[in-house]
Design a protein that fits this description.
Oligomer: heterodimer
Strand order of the largest sheet of chain A: 1-5-6-4-7-3-2
CATH architecture of the largest domain in chain B: 2-Layer Sandwich
CATH superfamily of the largest domain in chain B: Metalloenzyme, LuxS/M16 peptidase-like
Shape of chain A: globular
CATH superfamily of the largest domain in chain A: Metalloenzyme, LuxS/M16 peptidase-like
Number of strands of chain B: 25
Largest interface: A-B, 88 and 85 residues
Distance between the termini of chain A: 36 Å
Radius of gyration of chain B: 33 Å
Largest sheet of chain A: 7 strands, mixed
Structural class of chain B: alpha+beta
Number of domains of chain B: 3
CATH class of the largest domain in chain B: Alpha Beta
Number of helices of chain B: 26
Structural class of chain A: alpha+beta
Number of domains of chain A: 2
CATH architecture of the largest domain in chain A: 2-Layer Sandwich
Distance between the termini of chain B: 59 Å
Helix content of chain B: 40-55%
Number of strands of chain A: 12
Order of helices and strands of chain A: EHEEEHHEEHHHHHHEHEEHHEEHHHHHE
CATH class of the largest domain in chain A: Alpha Beta
Helix content of chain A: 40-55%
CATH topology of the largest domain in chain A: Cytochrome Bc1 Complex, Chain A, domain 1
Largest sheet of chain B: 6 strands, mixed
Number of helices of chain A: 17
CATH topology of the largest domain in chain B: Cytochrome Bc1 Complex, Chain A, domain 1
Shape of chain B: elongated
Chain lengths: 435, 768
């Protein structure tokens, strides 16, 4: 029950392998439109299930920001058959786990169980898709819980406002400008009736993707999916999203942070999305070459050699539209200007001279290794399949990542840097310390 | 003027009541049959809402209700108890719901009746508006019949089914709690609350006799005697409800509930009032509209809540049961092959052939507790500095070596042991081995890198202090463990300044050797890779064994010490509350019992703390506890983050849960649920490379042979008693300390009832 933060987003489905990794995915669709993927992995006696609903904060109305995430909490508040919070308790009773997260573009629920309890997990997911019970006391309870989450993650944490401000100014569309956690005022303005209509509108089989990965018998799993999901009726068919153009944000904003101990820099460039995988992964290479490894250019320069910054990190986000490439740095006092200049100098350098073959080789190997480690775990494989299918209609592209990444050249990376890392695509936020 | 004594005895049947005196008048055994009529929709809904109905659809009281008549301190007391505790057995019941009516009839089987005939049964059929009230009435009738010659002038009672375990899943343990109130004509003193309660009892009797005027005047009399008389307010509320005066009904019932939140009837009647308002809003718009928005919202919400119990045609919705698998999960622990090198170094192999991955981990038998006095932070600095230079390679060359080969290097320093891990694709396994070989044998600790690193540590320290939880932990560890090294949550500026390059080099030279190390390799790899490891580490020079004797004793906290410490962080927008106390070390025989006890208290999102503080009281995003058993001691911690306005309430609820945990312990269902959780969690840990860390820990803590092989069977043997005994002696709020971090002026007044509070600044200096 969390908001998937920026950093975690960076690590999903970003790598590939030239090795012959068999994804071993079987796909079928129920008559009600539920898209189902099965993948067998008998390494350990466990199964991971993910259920992606194609609704995130981009679907929210102007005075209802934060609602998609609040609603994610409501999905744990009971159904006609399951009491409040019993979803957790029933799974835990047999050693299972469950959680969920909301992003700008989707809401994902997952359950991890021992192989013999697959039916229980499917029953629970189907039950809440069909029979969710929304009532006032539970709604009020979760409203307060989400407000506490907002305080904990954003209001009471240093730099809690940085990504929020950067997103508001850098995204072109209103739908992407507001944060997933939303505003307290908007949350307060929602209610039980709205929650019910939201459920009807988005939580339907034809707007969801179910993935099962683990120690399963595919035929048995298929039967169970049909048994529990096939009779769920759709209450909506229209999921068209109205993208609204957002208010143009400031190119450079300075915010004061009373909790931070070091000033910080936030930089965002407009970036390609995964609808163009070649461009997306060329940009992804750039992220590793700039700062994600110990031998990366900006890490060596700012942290190790010149000792001007405390940290440097970032990378390309994972959005289907209006995507961004971020750079963040916590800077030693008095060095903000120097650090910013050095970051831009390095970007200019890459735009002019490009990267080396050695750097690209390292970045590719880093992705390859990370990708195969992802496949090691049932849940990360299920999340990978679910996300690709929810955003791009199918996980087929996962197979193609191999050749796409392999085909990226040093020239591609230079080209992508020149295409996107331009002044007109740049937004900056400075965090200064409170006096 | 007559004086009355009212005695209210609440007996949980599991317990005996040792303070009672001798029996003076044994009574005949009686037998009770209960009929329940549910006259209107509200009540039907209310009844159907109760879990009790679902269990009672399968069960019945199998034995007669026995009671004894005793004398205690000059007053007469009657104790009721079910002759055998928790033995409610399945029996026939007929239930149906028809429109707005539902009827439940509970009878015994013929076999049981014949067994009971010899006991000269007094069979009483009682009716009531609810199952509980019918049983109450039955009990009252028995009493009236048996005690008609006595001096009892009023008897009232209530029955609550307080615990129903695993209703849906076939387990039928039930605890029944009888609370009986009865009045005698003996001499004694009566408080205002007692007198008011008595008026309410009389009034309720009148209400059932449909003497509403008399009932109302008794309720009024009661409230005039004692304005917080919950029963009187309840009586007024149900009379208002009967008169369809919903505003007054809600007012009185909410007040009753406010003064006694344990009484489920108050809640149910309140729900009934709102349900009727909901119907009014839908059918009579003018009348419905007059209610305030808040009342309307509640009415809608409650209607929505109970709506799930009915189908659209008005028939009762039958809940589906979760499809638990009865199949036992069979799995084996991964095969581990051990090899001892000539220098004594143990290598464990965990072969996995699914994916082309490789992992090598070296565990070292020293952790932060082994830092020299005043040099906390030294050992983790050593691990961080390993990759900043080895013989023949600079920091930059090592970084390039790691990235050129797609290696992933990580280190971890716990209180008691440390690890260094390299993972890679199988094709680069030899590079991982080469890297670790260099780092653990040939680190050079260049002076320039050391200086840079120490500066960076200071920066990290400052960055961390921006985090409220970090500040809370820093103080809490110090208060709980005092001057022992466990008392350092992290290094401090002072201890960092004490760490000299020579200290680092000397420790590395002395202790990074096979005598203190253990290697685990895992993944898909060839024989050549194994041979490479063997040949590399065979010539690892021996050195000193780390001494594992405690250097500082942990002094127990004083009984009358300060309970609450506040760190003032004026910019805070939320308050971090953290409770801590010492717990047993890893070698304690209670480790497993305490671990499981903690799972029940606060170890998961279905534990008590989470359920109460988040799901019930809406105070926090998450409330958890955790128990970590270390080599020389353990730490029990609980905590949550809350908004400024509810700090006092949160501390009070947290302490209350700890107190209940200590005093009342756990129950069987909680243990069986969490055993299920741990069984599954154990299977999950085996996924991926999870077993490596388990092997390392078992070696470092010298766990018994076959510890993991026997883990699940030891878990299954654990009893409620084992946990309650462990918890009782160890986890106690009397031994704990609370650290609160936030904007102190916004909540300090809420802490008055907890005694004196010490306020410190962010540098942990006491504020004047």
């Amino acid at each position: 029950m969390k908001i998937l933060g920026f950093i975690i987003l960076l690590f999903t489905i970003t790598t590939y392998s030239k090795s012959n990794i068999e994804m071993n995915i079987e796909n079928f669709k129920l008559d009600n439109g539920l898209n189902v993927y099965l993948s067998k992995n008998s390494e350990s006696p466990t199964v991971a299930i993910t259920l992606y609903y194609k609704v995130g904060s981009i679907n929210e109305l102007k005075n209802k920001t934060g609602f998609a995430h609040l609603f994610e909490h409501m999905m744990f508040q009971g159904t006609r058959n399951v009491e409040k919070t019993e979803h957790f308790a029933l799974l835990q009773k047999v050693g299972g786990k469950a959680n969920a997260f909301t992003t700008k573009e989707y809401t994902a629920y997952y359950d991890i169980v021992t192989a013999n309890q697959l039916e229980l997990a499917l029953w629970l997911e189907a039950d809440r898709m069909e029979n969710l019970s929304v009532n006032y006391p539970n709604f009020k309870n979760q409203l307060e819980v989400v407000k506490e989450e907002m305080r904990m993650r954003y209001l009471n944490s240093p730099y809690g406002n940085l990504v929020k401000t950067l997103d508001r100014n850098a995204h072109k569309l209103w739908n992407y400008q507001h944060s997933v956690i939303g505003s307290m005022k908007d949350l307060d303005s929602s209610g039980v009736e709205y929650a019910k209509s939201f459920f009807k509108k988005y939580y339907n089989p034809n707007n969801a993707v179910l993935t099962i990965v683990g120690d399963i018998n595919k035929d048995d799993a298929k039967k169970l999916v049909k048994k529990y999901f096939a009779n769920i009726k759709n209450q909506s068919t229209n999921y068209s999203l109205k993208n609204k153009k957002g208010k143009k944000g400031k190119k450079l904003t300075t915010i004061e942070d009373k909790l931070a101990k070091f000033p910080a820099i936030g930089i965002a460039y407009q970036a390609p999305s995964k609808t163009n995988l070649k461009e997306y992964f060329a940009m992804k290479m750039l992220e590793t070459i700039l700062f994600n490894n110990d031998s990366s250019r900006l890490y060596r320069l700012l942290i190790k050699d010149k000792e001007l910054a405390v940290s440097i990190y970032g990378g390309i986000n994972n959005l289907k539209s209006d995507n961004l490439f971020y750079i963040f740095s916590m800077v030693k006092k008095g060095n903000v200007k120097k650090v910013r200049n050095l970051i831009f100098k390095e970007i200019k350098n890459i735009k002019k001279k490009g990267i080396t073959e050695v750097e690209l080789k390292k970045a590719k190997l880093s992705f390859k290794t990370e990708f195969i480690f992802h496949l090691e775990s049932n849940i990360s494989k299920a999340l990978m399949i679910g996300e690709f299918s929810a955003l791009y209609g199918s996980p087929d592209e996962i197979k193609n990542l191999l050749s796409i990444i392999d085909s990226i050249t040093v020239k591609d990376v230079k080209t992508i840097a020149n295409k996107y890392m331009k002044k007109e695509f740049l937004t900056e936020v400075d965090v200064k310390l409170a006096k | 003027m007559k004086k009355f004594i009212l005695l209210i005895m609440s007996l949980i049947l599991m317990n005996s009541c040792g303070m009672l005196g001798t029996t003076t008048k044994p009574l005949k055994k009686s037998y009770l049959t209960v009929e329940v009529d549910i006259p209107d929709r509200g009540m039907a809904i209310s009844e159907l809402n109760k879990e009790a109905i679902s269990i009672l659809s399968k069960t019945n009281l199998s034995k007669p209700v026995n009671f004894e008549y005793k004398k205690f301190s000059g007053n007469d007391i009657i104790i009721f108890k079910n002759s055998e505790n928790a033995n409610i057995n399945p029996i026939k019941i007929e239930g149906s719901a028809n429109g707005y009516k539902a009827k439940y009839l509970i009878t015994h089987t013929g076999v049981q009746l014949s067994k009971l005939k010899g006991n000269k049964l007094v069979k009483i059929i009682a009716k009531g508006n609810s199952l509980s009230s019918a049983i109450e009435t039955g009990i009252k009738n028995i009493l009236q019949k048996e005690l008609k010659e006595s001096q009892v002038i009023n008897i009232s009672g209530k029955l609550n089914i307080v615990n129903i375990f695993n209703v849906n899943y076939g387990v039928k343990d039930i605890t029944v709690d009888f609370s009986i109130a009865y009045t005698f004509k003996n001499n004694g003193n009566l408080t205002a609350a007692d007198r008011a309660n008595f008026y309410a009892e009389v009034g309720i009797t009148e209400y059932y006799k449909k003497h509403t005027g008399k009932a109302y005047s008794m309720a009024e009399k009661g409230i005039n005697t004692y304005k917080k008389c919950d029963k009187c307010l309840y009586l007024k509320g149900i009379l208002n409800l009967r008169d369809k005066n919903y505003d007054r009904a809600i007012y009185n019932l909410e007040k009753a509930y406010e003064y006694n939140k344990d009484n489920i009837y108050y809640c149910q009647k309140l729900q009934k009032a709102y349900t009727e308002i909901y119907e009014l809003i839908n059918t009579s718009t003018e009348q419905g509209k007059k209610y305030k928005k808040e009342v309307q919202a509640k009415a809608f919400a409650i209607a929505a809540y109970i709506g799930r119990h009915f189908n659209p045609d008005g028939s009762v919705y039958i809940k589906h049961k979760p499809p638990f698998s009865s199949k036992t999960l069979k799995f084996n622990l991964p095969n581990v092959k051990n090899t001892n090198l000539k220098n004594g170094l143990l290598i464990s192999e965990l072969v996995k052939n699914e994916l082309p991955l490789f992992n090598i981990t070296i565990g070292f038998n020293f952790g932060s507790v082994d830092n020299p006095k005043g040099k906390m932070g030294m050992i983790d600095s050593i691990f961080d500095l390993l990759k900043e230079g080895v013989e023949g390679k600079s920091s930059k060359e090592i970084a390039n070596f790691i990235d050129d080969n797609g290696l992933s290097l990580s280190t971890g320093v716990t209180n008691d042991y440390s690890t260094i891990t390299c993972s890679s694709l199988t094709e680069n396994a030899d590079k991982c081995i080469e890297l670790l070989d260099l780092l653990v044998k040939k680190a050079s600790f260049p002076n320039g890198e050391y200086k840079k690193y120490m500066k960076k540590r200071v920066e990290y320290y400052h960055a961390n202090t921006a985090n409220a939880s970090y500040l809370a932990n820093k103080l809490l560890y110090r208060l709980v463990f005092g001057k022992h090294n466990y008392g350092y949550y992290d290094a401090t500026l002072k201890t960092l300044s004490n760490i000299k390059l020579d200290d680092i080099k000397a420790f590395y030279k002395d202790y990074f050797n096979p005598k203190n190390a253990y290697i685990v390799i895992s993944g898909k790899y060839s024989k050549e890779v194994l041979n490479n490891i063997k040949s590399k580490f065979n010539d690892w020079n021996l050195g000193k064994i780390i001494e594992k004797t405690a250097k500082t004793t942990i002094k127990p906290l004083k009984e009358n010490r300060q309970l609450i410490y506040v760190i003032d962080r004026p910019s805070s927008k939320q308050v971090v509350i953290s409770y801590g106390q010492t717990a047993p070390s890893y070698s304690s025989k209670n480790t497993l019992a305490l671990y499981m006890g903690n799972l029940i208290l606060g170890g998961s999102a279905s534990s008590r703390l989470f359920m109460r503080l988040r799901e019930k009281e809406s105070l926090t995003y998450g409330a958890y506890s955790n128990i970590s058993a270390k080599r020389e001691a353990g730490l029990f911690k609980a905590g949550l983050s809350v908004r400024n306005e509810v700090v006092g309430k949160a501390v009070s609820s947290l302490l209350d849960e700890l107190k209940k945990f200590k005093e009342k312990g756990i129950i069987k269902k909680e243990l069986s649920d969490k055993k299920g959780l741990e069984n599954g969690a154990f299977a999950m840990k085996l996924q991926g490379f999870g077993y490596i860390s388990m092997l390392i820990k078992s070696k470092m803590f010298k766990l018994p042979k076959n510890y993991f092989e026997n883990y699940l069977s030891n878990l299954s043997k654990l009893t409620v008693k084992d946990i309650n005994n462990a918890v009782k002696n160890i986890i106690t709020p009397n031994k704990g300390i609370i650290v609160i971090v936030g904007d102190s002026k916004s909540f300090i007044s809420q802490l008055k009832s907890f005694g004196q509070v010490v306020v410190l600044d962010e540098n942990l200096k006491v504020k004047k």
